Amino acid sequence: MKIAIEGCAHGELERIYETIESIEKEQNIKIDLLLCCGDFQSTRNVADLQTMAVPRKYMDMCTFYKYYSGELVAPILTIFIGGNHEASNYLQELPYGGWVAPNIYYLGYAGVVRVNGIRIAGISGIYKGHDFLRGHHEFPPYTDKTCRSVYHVRQLEVFRLKQLSGKVDIFMSHDWPRGIQEYGNKAQLLRFKPHFTEDIESGQLGSRPLEELLKALQPTYWFAAHLHCKFAALVPHTRNHIKRNNPGDASSSSSSSSESEDENEDNDDSRTARQNVPATPVPVTKFLALDKCLPRRRFLQVLDMPSNDNSEGKLSLDYDAEWLSILRTTNHLISVKDNNYYLPGKKAGAIEERCNFTPTDEELEHIRAKFESLSVPENFCRTVPPFDPEEDYNYKQTHIEQANPLLNPQSNEFCSILGIDDPLCLAMLASGKDLPQTASLLDSSADIKTDQGNLEQSIEDVPTIVQHVATPPKRKLNMSLPAPVAAVEPDKNVIELPEEVDEEAMPIIEDSKVEETPAIRTSPNIKKLKRRNQSIYQAEEDD
Questions:
Q1: Nearest to 149 by CA among 175, 177, 126, 173
Q2: How far is CA 385 from CA 280, 382, 392, 529, in A?
Q3: For 155-194, what is each residue's pLDDT tens digit?
Q4: What are phi and psi of 534, to 5 degrees?
Q5: Which of 130, 142, 298, 441 could link 146 by a cystine bridge, Cβ 3.0 to 4.6 Å?
Q6: Is the peptide bond before 518 cis (omega within 30 degrees of 0)?
Q7: pLDDT for the residue 338
Q8: 3-class DSSP state for residue 382?
């Protein structure tokens, strides 16, 4: 199977597909799959454009909206991850991935899928240390701060990816793994990007969590973008890292990070010795970073990989059962708070908490029972009107407010089947907001390649997930009421008894108090308690 890898797309989908078409004609080949490594810019309309963290002069609609509206259709299956220049409100509707347009699939905050048997994993966003330990607390409309923090990598996604076992064929990231320059032509990189020198010397070039993932997963290929240059590297691994003792060791705590840094130093000291004694073939990751989509820039690479050919000649996009199980078993670790929190690890002391979420056979069987088929359903639907060039021709000079958050039917259906929570809903509820409106299906016409039956099923599934996520606020409302509904019937009995006792109790109570009591009608509970107490006291005197 021939796979095209793109660096930073920056919304230039039409140009990228034209480049692929020209390569196919020139080399007489057929490219089957396109992978984009971030900055995809899936802006559907002008409102989406307001959530993209770029200066206003760079806010351009580009061409994605044509594929969203159905004016154009992606000629090949396209899978992408998020970067640091995205329509964050749209991508946040799909935290676990989904179709952003027909034949264009987003992997989510992090995700793993299989295309004709090829296992593809990826993580969206870029690393910033001050946000790494926080929860996914952002939701639209964004502030200047949350407009940027929303695309910062969080520890939960890294932790989940470290639970994977088995072979990962392709890994996609926007950032580079830290220290990757040491495994390629570093001198050439610095000639092209001399301002990298300071970051390399301070150890700031690249992402520390991605460095940990590179060592833990040891994928066959790793593709990245972000730094707008082409750079290749070969990263050798040691065998003892392939089989991890405990995936939970990789929680993003300070202790685990210090261990990884010590481990890096040991690996650097012994790398030469390992290469001199190759007892067995050393696993190697082939790393490649690509440029952004501009003329005369190296932004596209074609890779030929063996795959399980489909008899029908069509690519099969499937969920990864192990990844689904990890999502389900780590659902309780989701945080939507704007403060640091820590994930379970083996150094938790006497606290017995699961820290290894690599699925067991029983957990994998549970996933297969929940999903009749692991094939990703083609359930794309439009949730907002697309950009209209004639109507919005002056959008760069017009002030447009950010849109309110929406629930995407794809996420609702996925969360309902798997039994997990949507972080967007949790973030809204934690901030005291009402649940976002479930997006209605707009213009579900024949030009969109969507099965009508799947759409109807998605609509039926929407109330299920909304009711599931809405449970916490309902409980909160019940707790805030003055009395539960079940207490109404006993209250009626309490009212009846004092009316009979009042006649006997009248001589005991002064007349002035009897006149004041019925006047206080706004506090019936006080009146009931007073009468009930009086009857008790009178019974004691009679005894």
A1: 126
A2: 57, 7, 12, 59
A3: 999 999 999 999 999 999 999 999 999 999 999 999 999 9
A4: -60, -40
A5: 142
A6: no
A7: 95
A8: strand
